[in-house]
Design a protein that fits this description.
single chain, about 60% helix, 3 domains, alpha/beta, 6 strands, 17 helices
Length: about 475
């Protein structure tokens, strides 16, 4: 073993350790930011390890350095600009795009090695079966991840909707055809035919589009976590292609973590992964075809809401996507600070699939410096709702719908939801009476202890803060 190889081995070992610690740290709100930086350092070390090894073995040509520097500067600049400018409401789309970039990277690596074999063989493996199969898997999974992530991003952004013909079983015929074509292409590529390479890229990309396009918006949290897992699998396969142990380990960890998160999301929605990928598109319905129009709606003013909050001892806030759209998390934090200053106990009920991606509400509230101790998961807060004086629902819909427990004919039936209806008083802040992403009527809105406060969440919370201050809430006694 040369000195450069030994240095690369030690750097890779350190990078794997840091990456593992980073992924572990992401499981808690308190350590998530630090863990993310730790994982970024691990990836930077991995790049350094590759460069050190290349310098020691053969040296890097000037032309290669040009591309390395250009790619580093361009990619780093785009990442920095994205991190600074993307609003929290667009974070799900950004995560989907990043998943797609990971898949595309693995895809391009595999194509490059297939077209320009290392040491006259795939990935330096001398054309053995493992090397060829690694290229096939990297291309297949990478292409599905890339095209599927772009479709997911476009659907979340509102640029795409599920076509009518994709909502029936005809879509399965097309997807099966693309899968069969991918199998034929893979066999041809293994046999050494270059035509199979491009056929596999095209058929896999079309399969990614076909599978993702049919999935409804309510299932997007599951799709994003699954695509994250795919990107890890593609990276691990690319590691076999280029002979990188670090890439194999990192890809395997990301793939496993993404798969676990996918299962958590499915459990949170009471949906199987099979029903998400191959079932009907949840979210294609409307209020008119899922329970009729609202009849017994009670609306109230911000002043009435403020008076009720002033007299409360315990308040629970349920954040949803509407809070993110209004970018009202900072205003919400001012309101809860005022309540806490007056001795009112405040916490936040977090549903695992609230928002448009896993952990969306946690990230949103962390941005507003909400103490992580106040973020309570559904299993923790549900038994406590009967003792809660006021629940303030902000932009959440499907995750607080009692139909999930009371109506066996509802598409939401069986999905774990927050039992906000058990509280003494519920205020729901919404712009109008439109249905949630699942398209299902919400029975909570017609309950006797529920009042609707209509308006944009940021404006309503701003007005609520003014009313609370006029009532003396927020002043230390």
């Amino acid at each position: 073993m040369t000195i450069s190889s030994l240095i690369k081995y030690l750097i890779d070992l350190l990078a794997v350790l840091l990456l593992a610690l980073g992924i572990k740290g992401l499981s808690k709100v308190r350590s998530a930011r630090y863990a993310n930086r730790l994982a970024a350092v691990a990836m930077a070390l991995s790049v350094v390890g590759v460069l050190v090894n290349s310098l020691g073995d053969k040296g890097i040509p000037i032309t290669a350095w040009t591309w390395i520097i250009f790619g580093t500067v361009l990619g780093g600049s785009l990442g920095m600009i994205t991190a600074q400018r993307v609003p929290m409401t667009a974070m799900p789309e950004t995560v989907a795009l990043f998943n797609g970039c990971g898949g595309m990277s693995s895809l391009l690596v595999a194509i490059g090695v297939a077209l320009f074999p290392i040491n006259d063989g795939f990935g330096g493996l001398n054309n053995d079966l493992i090397g060829i199969l690694s290229i096939v898997v990297s291309i297949f999974v990478g292409a599905i991840t890339f095209s599927g992530s772009l479709v997911a991003m476009a659907k979340l952004q509102g640029w795409l909707s599920t076509p009518t013909w994709m909502q029936n079983k005809l879509r399965h015929v097309f997807n099966i055809a693309f899968a069969a074509l991918s199998l034929v292409a893979a066999i041809e590529l293994i046999r050494g035919g270059e035509a199979g390479l491009w056929l596999l890229v095209i058929s896999s990309s079309l399969l990614g589009i076909g599978v993702t396009l049919a999935i409804g918006g309510a299932d997007m949290p599951v799709v994003i976590s699954l695509l994250n897992s795919y990107s890890g699998v593609a990276a691990a396969a690319a590691g076999f292609v280029v002979g990188s142990q670090l890439l194999i380990v990192a890809g395997a960890m990301v793939g496993a973590a993404g798969l676990i998160l996918t299962q958590v999301m499915c459990n949170g929605m009471n949906r199987s992964l099979t029903s998400v990928l191959f079932g009907g598109a949840l979210g294609a319905g409307s209020v008119a075809d899922s329970g009729g129009e609202y009849i017994n709606i009670t609306s109230c003013s911000v002043e009435e809401c403020a008076l009720t909050l002033e007299a409360a001892e315990r308040v629970v806030v349920v954040p949803g996507y509407g809070l993110a759209v209004a970018q009202a998390q900072h205003t919400l934090r001012e309101v809860t600070r005022a309540l806490e200053t007056s001795g009112i106990k405040v916490c936040y009920a977090i549903h695992p699939v609230a928002g448009r991606m896993p952990g969306h509400m946690n990230v949103l509230l962390a941005e507003a410096d909400v103490p992580y101790e106040q973020l309570l998961e559904m299993d923790v807060i549900n038994p406590e709702f009967p003792a809660v004086d006021v629940v303030l629902v902000l932009g959440a819909n499907d995750v607080v719908n009692p139909q999930a427990k009371n109506d066996s004919s509802s598409p939401l039936y069986g999905m774990p939801v927050l039992d906000v209806q058990e509280a003494q008083t519920v205020f729901v802040v919404k712009r109008g009476m439109s249905a949630g992403y699942s398209g299902i009527k919400n029975d909570l809105f017609e309950m006797t202890n529920t009042s609707m406060v209509f308006g944009d969440a940021k404006k309503v919370l701003g007005d609520l803060l003014v009313e609370l201050k006029e009532l003396g809430v927020g002043k230390k006694g």
